[in-house]
Fold these 2 entries.
Entry 1:
Amino acid sequence: MQQYDVAVVGLGALGSAAAYYAARRGKSVIAFEQFELGHVRGASHDTSRIVRTSNSLPEYVALARSAYKDWAELEQVTGQKLLTITGGVVFVPRDMSTPFDTLAQTLHDTGVPYELLDAAEVKRRWPQFDIPDSVDTVYTPDTGIAHASKTVSLLQHQARTHGALLKENMPVERVTPQPSGGVLIETATNSTNTNTNKYHAKKVILATDAWTNKLLAPLGVHIPLTTMQEQVTYFKPTDPTAFNPAHFPVWIWGADPAFYGFPTYGEPTIKAARDTSNNFMAPDQRTFVPSAQLQDQLDGFMRGFIPDEGRKPLRTVTCQYCITPDRQFVIAPLEEHPDVIVGLGAAHAFKFTPAFGRVLADKPPIYPNSPF
């Protein structure tokens, strides 16, 4: 039986980062992806993701700061540009309770540079927005964009460069902790899953998102996860130059429902979406068909928020959200099986990718105080 120091299951952003950091530390690493590398069935494909230190929870601010250092190191090591810093704004309506109510106070307490802007100042800087006077705006200059698919493929390349063996189209059927230590990993070898290959690793990292409970169930563990299909739409604005990253920031509408969006990035389109749309589904029942109702809701929001009569939707891309209660991360060994490490990013972890993978590859603590 083949023996490894570390096995990683799931090669989206977080699993690919964990494989890279484990291999970089001189560990023998094998990693498994049930689909092809770079697939579109999870949450790590497409182009852009927001990176930011602006968060209402101090522990996430600390992790984001660490991640920014890791992003910079990854860019330096590879010679590839992964982040584009644009500045970012979070809009917080005063007439409702939102997760961003304490944002400015947290940034002040943690020393993150920010500005608190009124509606008039927002309109002066970015006349593309049309916001009411009852909205406060928090601007952070370090917010920007990470290139999603480029990041994932680069991490996979770097993992292989450091000796990791990455196996795609190879579903893991079972992970079984062994009495003598380590974990037995059994993978399917054909489409009917009638034959298996067996591997042994000193520890296993599960970065399996919505498929996590399938592997945890035989171990008597269940994590309450909610899975939904999300969608983002790329719009062609009348004047793309007005939305160039030099003139337009990443933005978040911090209300309920919440929306977010990007300046132009690699093409003359702007991207926008609702966050956590509650379009519930199971991974094996996903249709990949965008919701017309969600599209109409987004179109209506954009008409009032960023008015542009000539704007046209060009394409809509779906992805999968898998969230924990309160959207807290899970970065933790199983209590009864400490050689099995679980990493769940609750659909907001891409900005932390290198730090998240680094922590998974090391001996992770429970972060932040996960009840699982």
Entry 2:
Amino acid sequence: MDINTDLESIAASIVENTKAIGEYRLKDSSGNIQLLPRDAPQEAQHARQLLLQASIQLQQLCTEPSEFLDQAQIHYQQLSAFQWLIHFQILQHIPLGTDVSVAYEDIAKAANVSSRRLKSVARMAMTGGILAEDESQRVKHSRISAQIVSEPALLDWALFITRYSAPTALAFARATERWGDSKDKNETAYNLAFNTPMAFFDHVSQSEEMTQHFAGYMRGQGRSSGLAVEHLITGYDWARLGPAHVVDVGGSTGQIALMLASNFPDLSFTIEDLPSTIEESRIQLRDIDPSIASRISLKAHDFMQPQPHEISHLADVYLLRKILHDWPTATAHKILQNLVSSMKPGARIVVMDTILPLPGTFPTPQEAALRVRDLIMAQNFNSNERERDDWIELFGSTTPPLRLNNEWQSMKSVMAVMELVIQE
């Protein structure tokens, strides 16, 4: 197929899918246009994905090699500008609303930065859709920046990306040069970026501020459409369990258990995590509906250790959402073995994690999001996301072995839901 035919095909896809989502567009309370509300029908969400895919294909097809390098410079400077804005809390100094603007000098004074520097940074960020200017060269929010600053979970996510993830990614080549293909959790890009001999989670746990940032990041991840909790709610038949007890292993501050408990009144939960995170959970969950709170308990526990008997004799399901991908195979095996050794008859494990696709088998935006997760695992933990065969091998390595009983994968999710039972 020649380039003209490709361009015509992509253009036709853009027109078709733009029409498909047009009727669902709406304005939010600040007057900003939302491309699609989160509860738009499946067909509209699919059309949005196809529109995004076509726009990426169009850009790739029209980009010359020298322009690719120009774009690389643009992207890292946009990220640098975003980091600067987040660090100095610039977004919080701008009133919400598409028609409300503020002078650079006023923002600079409030944030204690140079107005000249602020203008340079903000205008770079504007080329990526963050912030905007009105006709009088005053700053206002764009659709994207308004939503980020309006939702604490998104702001937490932005903080973690710019303060922790980006510096770690930049240290990746140096880490490989220094340690090669090391599997040690304290010989990573993160160790170089933050000049620490400690493994990621050990380092985070030493600082209350970092622990809070990581918990906020996890909450923010839940706002990503590809990482949304809804995929866990709809991707597994929780209702068929009837009255059952679910142990959320490494459950952070309890947002996943809370969502599941809200949707499935027959289920009760134990949230397990390290002591500092459990204390944060108590704060996060103290004001919830009593009918839900009565079904959620908290337990300080390190999943590198065997399950406590008072938990294992209750557990019908062990939930591992975004846990195993953090760890190399030997450690992931240990985590699973600790559960297998404690499982009562009929209990099962539900794993929600990434299954890496073969190149080109998923739409580019979804595949790229999965590749990001794969590199994050390498840079922080010397681990990696796994392909399907890797998962099967890992599950079968326990004693007795686990068997993949069922598997669900939504095209909107970057994670699959896998149900494991002990192989008979």
